[in-house]
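User: I'll paste a sequence; please echo it back and then give the predicted structure.

Assistant: Echoing your sequence first, then the prediction.
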Amino acid sequence: MSEQEKIPMIHGSADVQTKEIGPGTTIWQSCVILPGAVIGRDCNINAFCFIENDVLIGDRVTLKCGVYLWDRITLEDDVFIGPGVAFSNDNFPRSKRYQRKLVPTVIKKGASVGTGSVLKGGITIGEYALVGVGSIITKDIPAHALYYGTPAKHQGWVCCCSSKLNTKLKCPVCQLRYKKSDNGLVLINS
């Protein structure tokens, strides 16, 4: 099937107001997606998700059930967001305050955030980083970092394949090697 033939699949109970949905994307039951949202191709938006206007979702992103994405949130390509992950976009909220200063949150390419984690607004999670289940994220996470806990702390490094790296920054599964950089790890062989 050609890329043009892969139309989005939208469940009948979903309220999808955006026209910006890539081919091959599936949107399941009871989702609400506002008109300004942009969703890439081959995404899987599970049941009971809510996506506001100023949200950008890349290609091949998975949102599990019960994820709400507020204005100024960006999920790059190949991101995984587990069920019930809670995002924030206002670090000083008040009811009925309309002149808010919303802060951007960015989840970089290939990163995964585990079930029930809570993310403070204004953070960046680096490429291929892995956030463990139930973590509280209050600061930026570097590329390929493994974080978990409440509050989350650095617990090691992970490969693109999600396996934990050894102390020499080599993957025991796929044998890829990494080196430290200013923003976490970078791949040195493939």
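The chain has no helices and 24 strands. Residues 6 and 81 are 23 Å apart (CA to CA).
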